[in-house]
Design goal:
Shape: globular
Largest sheet: 6 strands, mixed
Strand content: 5-15%
Number of helices: 16
Radius of gyration: 29 Å
Number of domains: 3
């Protein structure tokens, strides 16, 4: 390094301190971790320790497998959180010097299923204890034969509550799936689209669950008329404007502290908007010569009105079901990238991992840290689920654990 003046050649004098520069880099490196265990032979003849004595082998998620916890963490995150096909991960790992076969990973994934079942069941139970859920379903292909099922189309349901996200993968789309998941709840509100199966649930018929329908779907109906019938655009956009004003008013009500004058004023505004909308709808339906594009939209609005107005008496209930649709984005990307699941067990694993990752996201937990901790606990339990898997779920973690496992960077992080 030049330590002299470029002009006269006189040397520089050292100055206290350093001029530091930070450059962030990423280094991913596959490596072998070799454990060397000393061997001993008994010097006695009592027979307690026949043969050679050595320490037990290192704990492994899958007994006798050469793949460590970090490999399975990488694979599970890559496929079920970042929606990348396994084949692409294998190609990526090859660039890091690790050659693995598709069969090795597929066999390993199948053996991981029983490890996640206990902790997944705990998430389901916690979801059933809630009182407000967003629910939706989307198609999911399972390339396996199933009794009574024609074709490979199954349905991935999501039940999103305040602190859990649960995915269920049945071969059908009937009301039995939400009814079975929610179980014998005392009371609750289920926010859904207008799929008729929800109304057939036993809990809905018994009155223990209220169905709240999605205003975003109603808004889309009017926008569809505006796009398809140019001569009806002004009428349709008028309804879109009414819905938008109602939504804005309800947002202000939800933001206002309860039992305050501000909340009371916002509440009156919401109730006035809803009260004005119903007679306006009925007046239009009674018009002679009603345009054919208007009638089905207005009749749908009338038919679903009780569910659409649940939010009026229950301010905690959102007007739309966008939360459930957002929850499905990751799985939908997976469906596009690797088409679905090649077996029933594979679909079951996908639903469990989707549930866990969604739940961790709601709590702000780093899924890589959590998954490493959980699979390490499985390895230390001899390749089985830990005795108390619920201890690692977010609602049972201490504040210190949640901070240590948080997705948020430390306060002194300069990035």
């Amino acid at each position: 390094e030049q330590q002299r003046c470029a002009g006269c050649g006189q040397p520089f004098a050292a100055f206290p301190g350093t001029d530091d520069t930070t450059v962030l880099e990423i280094e991913v490196r596959a490596h072998r971790r070799i454990s060397r265990r000393r061997r001993y032979r008994p010097t006695c003849s009592c027979g307690t320790h026949p043969g050679i004595v050595t320490m037990p082998t290192p704990a492994r998620v899958i007994p006798k497998s050469t793949l460590g916890v970090s490999v399975w963490v990488t694979l599970l995150l890559d496929k079920f959180l970042f929606s990348r096909p396994t084949f692409r991960l294998l190609e990526d790992l090859r660039t890091h010097g690790l050659n693995l076969s598709q069969g090795t990973l597929t066999d390993g994934l199948q053996r991981l299923v029983p490890l996640f079942e206990p902790v997944s069941n705990q998430v389901v139970e916690h979801s059933q204890e809630q009182a407000l859920w967003h629910a939706d379903e989307t198609r999911w292909l399972v390339f396996a034969t199933w009794e009574g099922e024609v074709g490979h189309r199954w349905y991935l349901w999501v039940f999103h509550s305040a602190d859990t996200g649960v995915f269920v993968l049945p071969p059908g789309r009937s009301h039995e799936t939400p009814a079975e998941h929610l179980g014998p709840v005392e009371e609750g509100v289920l926010i859904v689209d207008r799929y008729a199966a929800s109304q057939a649930m036993a809990q809905v018929k018994a009155g223990t669950i209220l169905l709240a329908f999605c205003w975003a779907h109603v808004r889309r109906d009017f926008l569809s008329v505006a796009r398809s019938w140019p001569d009806q655009e002004a009428w349709a956009l008028g309804w879109v404007e009414r819905i938008g004003a109602l939504s804005d008013g309800n947002d202000r009500r939800r933001d206002a502290p309860r039992a305050t004058a501000e909340f009371a004023a916002c509440d009156r505004e919401v109730r006035r908007s809803v009260a004005a909308m119903e007679p306006h709808r009925e007046a239009e339906l009674a018009e002679p010569g009603l345009h054919p594009a208007r009638r089905p939209v207005l009749e749908g609005l009338r038919h679903h009105w009780p569910g659409l107005t649940v939010f009026v008496e229950h301010p905690e209930v959102p007007m739309d079901n966008n939360t459930a649709e957002r929850s499905e984005r990751g799985p939908v990307m997976g469906r596009k990238n690797y088409y679905g699941s090649g077996a029933v067990w594979s679909g079951r694993l996908a639903a469990m991992l989707f549930s866990l990752f969604q739940t961790l996201a709601l709590w702000g937990i780093n899924p890589r840290i959590w998954l490493t901790a959980y699979l390490t606990a499985c390895a230390e339990s001899g390749g089985r689920a830990p005795a108390k898997p619920e201890a690692l779920l977010p609602w049972h973690l201490t504040e210190d654990q949640r901070r240590a496992w948080s997705l948020e960077p430390p306060s002194d992080d300069s990035s």
